[in-house]
User: Fold these one by one.
Assistant:
Number 1:
Amino acid sequence: MINADPSELDKFSQLAHRWWDPTSEFKPLHEINPLRLEWIDRLAALSGKKVLDIGCGGGILAEAMAGKGADVTGIDLSDKALGVARLHLLESGCKVDYRKTSAEELADAEAGTFDVVTCMEMLEHVPDPSSVVAACAALVKPGGHVFFSTINRNPKAYLFAVIGAEYVLKMLPKGTHEYAKFIKPSDLSRWAVSVGLPPDELIGMSYNLLTQRYSLGADTSVNYLMHTVRVA
């Protein structure tokens, strides 16, 4: 069985045509992309690396990593999102290999293939996130880098990521996130360690209501990113 929720795929497929509109429901992704790109590049030096972006959607991060000189493969299970991603390559001139497959399926076929694996804003949308973490470990080369980003599970995260972002500020469509699927850093760390991906860095991402800007810092209480390195 594919590790995917049909309702989640349908939700994002319905919005796929708006992936590259920086004023659309995907505005937050466009705004955080420079931050997460520079963080990834600082830790993994993307130029010349073979990179896999899991849950690539319309390709915002995948294209940006290709722009840094990486050889990027992007995978997703949404035909519509992948269609938009491929069309955007005609505008940008970037080179990304987009494929419709799951992380688990690709791990069976291409284990130990990639220098860098990214899985950003995706784990909180699948039925079994630990299975995706295990697939990431299988896909990356020994000594390679795996990056995750997701949302913490606590009352503050519910207030900010669901009530605030979806209902008050309307930064995201209502129903984008389900609180029960949020993931504590301790759980993500445990899953990662169990498959040979000891965490190397944990960092938070915060939104300032006054400046309306995102920043990386020590506060991991809502959004956070984790860098792991595959045990050789």
Number 2:
Amino acid sequence: MVSAVRILDKATSQPRSRFNLGSATTIRRSPGRTQLATIRIRIPSVKSQPNRVELVASVGVRGVTGIAQVLFRIFRDGREIYNTLQGIESSGSEQNYIVTFQAIDRNVKSGSHVYTVTAENQTANTKAVIVGPISFSGLAVKTRS
């Protein structure tokens, strides 16, 4: 049986629309974090259960020194709901990456929710920078069988 969905809300953020070495931002070392983008999704009412919020982020990253292990996290209302780790190589190899990942947040309570995507470098003596583009989007849907 095919599941039907109804769109509850959609939000997008694109703080950087292109690759630009001139505006590179260093990814902070853990436990510090570099905030990349924020969106707000509204779930209208309890009658919107069951639901899911589909989140997609793409981040342009450049390796500068060593092989940085960059931890990307997604937070809902300040609470981590998803993370993924990506190795970013530097000189002598590939240096520029577009890291894309998707997360699904299920059965979100009604109300307005802030989703934030961050990055942090977990490897000492390495450096990686955000060079763009950055995009972050969320689609909230009501699901039913």
Number 3:
Amino acid sequence: MRKNARRSILAGFVASATAALTFLGTTPAQAALPTPVSAATARSYLASLTVATEHSRTGYSRDLFPHWITISGACNTRETVLKRDGSGVVTDSSCAATSGSWYSPYDGATWSAASDVDIDHLIPLAEAWDSGAWNWTTSKRQALANDLTRPQLLAVTDNVNQSKGDQDPGTWWPSRTAYKCTYARAWVQVKHYYGLSVDSAEKNSLSSVLNGC
């Protein structure tokens, strides 16, 4: 068989495989999780954040932070993060994940069912409210709640996300010690980008971790 013919057959096979993967809802190269800023940059950002007592929770509702919004086609933000953070993720025609695996960096667990995974808002929506979002427009709240550009959304073990709730680093850290530096860098980056404040206990805890990164 001539080289050109072999190349043509191989190209056809690759094209067919790529098309099949796309049809099944997975792609050869999925979007990467945003990498947080460096520890040095995070320390600089933290020093610039306003330190303030948290605002009253009165008037807060998750509905004031519209999510999950449509990102592409039938896929909303949750489904987009599941595909981004998972391995071998296959989706159906409605973009729901039907198979795949997800590694949770908070606790080191791996899951094979999307129902065992939550999409964590790194800066919880209630925490954002307390830190300045109470005074935002709805469009800015929506941007935070669906931010795929900064490290604000992450697929993690569902009950770990639920135990975190609306806590900040003054009272909650991932149990996996190796991830604490990454978590602190991401937390400060998102707060800095959105101009959110920190309280004293939160800042002290973040400083302690970042100084050891």
